[in-house]
Amino acid sequence: MHLSRQARIQMAIFLVIALASLALMTVNYMKLPSKWFGIGHYSVTVDLPRAAGLYETSNVTYRGTEVGRVTAVHLSDAGVVAEMSLKSGINIPSDLQAQVHSQSAIGEQYIELLPRNATARPLRNGDVIAAKDTTVPPDINAVIDSVKTGLQAVPHNDLKTVVDESYTAVGGLGPQLSAIVKASTDLSIDARQNLDPMLSLIDNAKPVLDSQTKSSEAIAAWASNLATVTHELKAHDQAVNGVISTAGPALDETHQLVNRLQPVLPVLLANLDSVAQVGLDYHNDIEQILVYLPQLVAIEQGAMAANVNTRQPYRGAYLSFNLNLNLPPPCTTGYLPAQQVRNPSLVDSPDLPAGNLYCRVPQDSQFNVRGARNIPCETRPGKRAATVKECESDQNYVPLNDGMNWKGDPNATFSGQDVPQLPPGMPPQGSPAPPPIAAVLNNPATGAYTGPDGRPDLAQNAQKEKTWQSMLLPPTK
Questions:
Q1: Could you tell me what percent of the chain has a pLDDT over 70?
Q2: CA dihedral of residues 468, 470, 472, 473 (deg, nearest 10)
Q3: Kind plus residue range of the DSSP H or E element containing 115
Q4: What is the pLDDT of residues 129-169, one digit of tens each?
Q5: In what order do the strands lie in the sheet with 128-129?
Q6: CB-based contacts of 360, cutoff 8 Å, min separation 6
């Protein structure tokens, strides 16, 4: 039979379409390359305690997505073995759990792969999932029998009451139940769209929950303390209300006080800072004073103890005065020479001599042991000096004499020994004018004399005869 050119072209097109359809059906629907040659798939075996309704061609899912099918289910010595054909190119962690689930109460079974460690190596061809890592659902027939047994155990009248009460509870709530169902559906859809973050949240929830379990005692103690606090607040409700009601005026008064103190408070704090710095430097001395203060008060009280419970009209302190003349002798080393000492009769007030005047005998001398030369340096422990500047310097104290006598030019204010000590850079001053000296003659017989001011001796009216014995006796009226 002779075919026209147009018929041959049509037959060729039909043949191409038929071959393409056959290839598409073979590859996509019949999956013959995968079944015959395993192309694009790899095989993994699952050990199950029982089949649990699983059958050949059952779906295999991973994170809610189909990743393969069950190719065979057969018995083994320990239970049931299910062979799965999984798609290549999808990395499924090998540290996982295979669970057999049912799509509904009476629906078909499928295997769900749940990873436990996302960083584990991927499954490979020939891997076996052990039975300890698998779970199967309970037998549906046993569940139905249990439900039937439970319903039969409930009295008929009580079951009717439950149904009636359920109708009363939900009757007429169709729109509300519909809204609940619709919201649940939307929630499920959103959860499916955010499946990976939800699975990550579930995987990471275990450490958080474990920490809550470990700290359950602390949480219980905190709750108990919180209950105690709330109970106290309830018991003292009026007091709490009073505090809240008066807190506003109190804060306002505080604000006004701060505003009034604002001009002077910075100055006061600045001054207190200086005082605090001094107290910080002299904290050892302050501590010693506070330590000795109780003992000093006790001694002062002991001086008054002799008059306790007595009828003496005048109560005073009992003290013992010992007359020690020139013991120890006064220190003159380091002061002005005797020729420059002012006359006690002078009443003017000239400027003090330049420099520092203090006893400058050796520090271990038995004279004037509490002098300025033995003041401990606060910032230099172990060192003693008369001035703060000398304490801060690297120079040690240098005494003038080995004893109590003046050495040097007696007619000069500043001898070669540099007394008094001058501040650095201050030139020595000239000698002041000698103090006025007056001399008068007295009557050897009477002892009377006339002073330089022309006034007679006040002793002229005293008794004329005086002996040393009379001086030891009290005066007579």
A1: 76
A2: 170
A3: strand 109-115
A4: 998 999 888 777 777 788 778 777 777 777 778 778 887 88
A5: 128-129, 41-48, 80-87, 65-75, 59-62, 109-115, 96-102, 134-135
A6: 333, 334, 373, 399, 400, 401, 419, 421
